[in-house]
Amino acid sequence: MIIFKRVLLLVLALLITVSSALAVKIEISAPGEQQIPLAITSFVPMGQIQPEIATEINAVLDADLSLSGLFSMVDRASYLSDAETLGLNSVQVDFTQWKLLGAEAVVKGGYRIEDGKLIIEARLFDVISRRMLTGRRYIGKPEEVRRIAHTFADQVMHSLTGEKGPFSSRIAYVSNRTGKKELYLMEVDGHAPIRLTNHRSIVLNPDFSPVGKELIFTSYKNRNPDLHRKEIYTGREARVSHRTGLNIGGRFSPNGREIAVTLSKDKNSELYLIGTDGTIHRRLTNHWGIDVDPSWSPAADKIAFVSDRRGNPHVYIVDVDSLEVNRLTFDGKYNATPAWSPDGERIAFSRLEDKRFDIYTINPDGTDERRLTFGPGNKEHPRWSPDSRFLVYSLDRDGEKSIYVMRADGTGNRRISAPGGDDSHPAWSGRW
Amino acid sequence: MKLPKKQSWRQLHSRLEPGFKRMLWLSVAIHFLFPILYTGLLHFTPEKAKPPVYRVNLVNKPVKNPQAGRPEASPKQETKTVKKAKPKPVVRPTPKPKPVVKPKPKPSPKPEPKSKPVVKPTPKPKPEPTISKADEQSFDQKMAELRRQQEREDRLAALRAELERERRKVVSPVEDAPVGEITGKGDQEGIAYASYVKEFITERWRLSKYQLPSLNLEAEWKLIYNAQGKLIHKKVISKSGNKAFDDSLLTAIMKSQNLGRELEEQTEFEVTFNLREMQN
């Protein structure tokens, strides 16, 4: 009996092997299409008709989701009758119509104002599987339409990629549109810019705190480049470091408890770790060269910075524990403003080549260096979005500096800051 | 006298260690054997057959003036050596020109046959006095016409051959592409079903690189299509672990449920999905 069982098992195993060997093997090494055809329907009123709300929602969703690079937008002119229906659940959606148009995902939704509050229902459907991928109800003030739309765009990104988008975050930057360099804050698409400082001096190098809605920046308000901090909502401001000489390039550590900063209190610019109260915790570099522009690795164990210790300014990495310094870049005459991506995969920096600064990225081990920007104008001060998918930078072209965003591979560049002043030194906030 | 000798021998024998005698004989034998082996066996070489003697006249590469610079050499000798040296080095390089020489006469007669009919009839009109000038002219005209016709036919035949060659020549951008594919070479042996299915699924697979944290993803599916081209069974063999990637595959497979054409028979496909082409 045992022998019979063994033979049976053997025969079965043999059959499985033979059948798998007979299967036709195919390898598909790239998708046929690298963008998902998406239809964004006009949001339908669920009460009083207020077309400006629908227009605003659609404009924000369109801009955000097209910047993502994930989608190809289905032409609105081709929409059929289902685009005019609310369709908040999959049963109410005529997927056949959308399939006919070649759409694979559909955004539908509605809005109403109830007791002075804006209620927005938004849905994302998968046309192929005929199911809802994500659905949210948002309640807010009527003037928060854009914020709600940005939040839903983040949600769409989350449902399709597993990680939220950065569209509801903020970008801080320095602008001289009042005649003096002041600190400003705007939405990711450049809307709703607000001035945060009134130092009537020079403000530089803002950086967001990873915890709380707070910024640090350098200001010449007291005729010395001192490090300041500012709470965005309360407007409270304080000097963190006001030592003689430079107090510049402050960058919060990933846990927000320390700040890496360049101090020149001992005549030479060196990197230091200071507490949020301004006390010096540690000196990170000790070299006759100028060490500036620190940027933390997400694991907080390393800091990328710029030094001219070997002649030309290049990007170096210092180990926070051992203080061992390793050189990262070797090409170019001038490498500046490194920014470590939040996912730790890449370091962005600007490099002077052919009399022009351009944005580059490189692996932290010094491999796979890639140039992201081309064309006229200096592109400087790159900073990453919190999801590491996008970069913000300043572009000096035609005599005007402005803020641009692009995807991490250098595609999809678009200007976000309004004309009418020199805008520079952008900093992308964390999740807002 | 005898006894003491025997006794002394026995005494000597008893004093020797057991086996000494054997060792002694062995040693003697080796001592004899070694010179025999050395002189006889090792140095034994069978008589070699006398190698044939070749007399070779070694000559230098022919040079214009090999004896130049030698005061004792007379110019006459120089010319002699040059003459002697010539035949041998020429032996090898000359074969090349030789075959060139042979075919030369061959092609020349070939075109002649075409003109032969022209040449042959020439003796015929020898009995000139019997043929009138008008006849001769008409004959010449006919011959010229025949020649032109022949030339036209030859040209047409050459063009036809060229056309046939061109028709047979399949230009494929893919080297050694399998028969049956658009890019394939050679005669059609059947339809490449695997290629069709691959193309069909690829067209329906949509995925953006911006959806993925890494492009180093791979998943494997088992798909069974019946003879009518309908998906009757699908199974994940291995997942990539990335939701967006795996979901996109499911969507692509759902969109590929009907191939829109028949297969030869019910077929099982093991499809490996990865992003190798995007990794650059």
Can you describe this structure?
- The complex is a heterodimer of chains A (432) and B (280).
- Chain A has 4 helices and 31 strands.
- With 432 residues, chain A is mainly β.
- Chain A has 2 domains: 36-161, TolB, N-terminal domain (Rossmann fold, 3-Layer(aba) Sandwich); 170-428, Neuraminidase.
- Chain A starts with a helix and ends with a strand.
- The mean pLDDT of chain A is 93.
- Among the domains of chain B are: 71-168, no CATH class; 193-278, Fusion Protein Consisting Of Minor Coat Protein, Glycine Rich Linker, Tola, And A His Tag, Chain: A, Domain 2 (2-Layer Sandwich), CATH 3.30.1150.10.
- Chain B is mainly alpha-helical.
- Chain B has helices at residues 2-15, 20-42, 75-85, 87-91, 97-101, 111-119, 133-168, 193-204, 243-255, and strands at residues 218-225, 231-238, 267-274.
- Chain B is built from 9 helices and 3 strands.
- The model of chain B is unreliable at 73-127 (pLDDT under 50).
- Helices cover 46% and strands 9% of the residues of chain B.
- Classes of the chains: A mainly beta (432), B mainly alpha (280).
- Chain A binds chain B through residues 19-20, 22-37, 68-71, 104, 126, 128-129, 160-163, 343, 389, 407, and chain B through 193-194, 197-198, 201-213, 222, 242-244, 248, 250-252, 254-255, 267-278.
- Strand 1 of chain A pairs parallel with strand 3 (267-274) of chain B, so a sheet runs across the interface.
Class from secondary-structure proportions of chain A: mainly beta
Cross-sheet strand order for the largest sheet of chain B: 2-1-3
Query: How many whole angstroms does the radius of gyration of chain B measure?
Result: 48 Å
Summed up, the domain count of chain A is: 2
Which residues of chain A form runs of ≥5 with pLDDT under 50?
Answer: none
Cα(first) to Cα(last) distance of chain A is: 70 Å
The total of beta strands of chain A comes to 31
CATH class of the largest domain in chain A: Mainly Beta
Rg of chain A (C-alpha, Å) = 26 Å
Let me know the largest β-sheet of chain A.
Answer: 6 strands, mixed
**Superfamily at the CATH H level of the largest domain in chain A?**
TolB, C-terminal domain
Strand content of chain A: 35-45%
Strand proportion of chain B, as a percent range, falls in 5-15%
Fraction of residues of chain A in helices? 10-25%
The residue-averaged pLDDT of chain B reads 72
How would a crystallographer describe the biggest sheet of chain B?
Answer: 3 strands, antiparallel
How many helical elements of chain B?
A: 9
